[in-house]
Specification:
434 Repressor (Amino-terminal Domain); Umud Fragment, subunit A; 2 domains; 5-stranded mixed beta sheet; 4 helices; 10 strands
């Protein structure tokens, strides 16, 4: 993930080794963070920004890749296609994000076709804290949807709720991650 760690480190007059020492880590970790070879998590942002006298959002690149579509109605198989389009990072978001374009109408009026939803794909599985949230979910069969995540009838099963379509009952998921931000289709500005 592109970032501005090097810019702020240089401005602060620190070497990579000095920043590593201040963070209590090795120089190779700082090198990987600067190059975007290691995920720049919220935790890293919160540790690095005070040392470099900047806000966490100052360290982030202004653009986010839109890497695919997500089904809100029809079945979509989301695959990370690489950085095909770039949109402006939503305000007050930190960490690694990817954008997905909403395809379908089952989540109207909250999500319109063409809106961009932003997620962080940093883990597999389902965190129970996400139950009841608007989430991007991947079924074990490969389809990816934008739904409200609910418990299913058995452990390991989930019900996916739409705002204006039938529920998908007792499905198995590879992963679920909450929607972090939305850019309405009318406000999209591709870079």
């Amino acid at each position: 993930m592109p970032n501005r760690i090097k810019k702020y480190r240089t401005r602060a007059g620190l070497t990579q080794q000095a920043l590593a020492d201040a963070l209590g880590t090795g120089k190779s970790t700082v090198v990987k963070l600067e190059r975007g070879e290691r995920p720049l998590s919220q935790s890293w942002l919160m540790r690095i920004s005070p040392i470099l006298d900047c806000s966490p959002s100052d360290l982030l690149d202004d653009d986010v890749a839109v890497v695919g579509k997500i089904g809100a109605g029809g079945s979509i198989v989301f695959e990370d296609l690489g950085e095909t389009e770039q949109v402006a990072r939503p305000p007050e978001t930190a960490g690694t994000l990817v954008g997905l374009e909403v395809d379908g109408e089952s989540m109207l009026p909250k999500f319109d076709p063409g809106d961009i939803v932003f997620i962080s794909r940093d883990r597999d599985g389902v965190d129970p804290i996400d139950i009841g949230s608007y989430c991007a979910v991947r079924l074990v069969t490969g389809e990816t949807y934008l739904k409200i995540l609910s418990r299913g009838s058995d452990a390991g099963r989930f019900t996916l709720r739409s705002l204006n379509a039938a529920d998908m009952d007792d499905v198995q998921l590879s992963w679920a991650t909450p929607i972090r931000a939305i850019t309405p289709r009318a406000a999209r500005r591709f870079r």
